[in-house]
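Writing this down once: the sequence line spells out the residues, with the fold written below as integer tokens. I am pasting one below:
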Amino acid sequence: MKKLILRDWLILIIIIAPFPFLGFTWDMFPEEVPVHFNLHGTPDRYEHKSIGLFILPVLNLIMYVFLRVVPTIDPRSKNFPFFEGRYLVIRVITHALLTFVF
């Protein structure tokens, strides 16, 4: 567990960052938030803020678990040590992108 935290500290910070933000700004959001936009940039789907604001942070948590499990179910897992560093970079970029989109 300690090795996991040392290696994934940046990813964990990126994933956890939206939750305190939501805690501090919860009352500033309207009850209905847009969650989907059409080609013209106008919202065409709304959700209650308790669902709409947590979609991407929870998806980010699910992606973290998925990306941690993928190397263990890879049929060619013996090759994983050759690109482990690059895989970590891909994971950081993926989680940063999801947090940025949030």
